[in-house]
């Protein structure tokens, strides 16, 4: 991205308000800007982010790992929030230095790539997947993040729009 271009939440909000709603199930978003139809699709998402696409494997392929990092660091917790993970990382108490890398990867995946709220519970399959860093590296994050982004855009705007209509 050119260094002179600045992000503008107002412009993004303006764009999202001009989304065309269609009845055909689709995983893209279309907008009418002036007389032009603009489309936000997987291809454009890939061109912007460079994140890999492909078939997202079922989460069941990541089998339970005895003495995995979830079990080692959060033995009493079935669920771990992103905030709990941040607090734990800040303490810096790791059994192995490599575990710190794995926990940081999970944190960065959720905080930076997926951009979830700190109250969000980290999905257990992420703890399982990070045990095998080769699998973690080849995971199709583009497909996962794109699907999450489209869902968030569509549902957040719908909730806000419905809220304004009730006022």
Automatic annotation (TrEMBL):
- Domain of life (superkingdom): Eukaryota
* Pfam families per record: DUF1985
Which residues does the UniProt record annotate as the domain DUF1985? 17-148
The protein in question is named DUF1985 domain-containing protein
The species this protein was found in: Dipteronia dyeriana
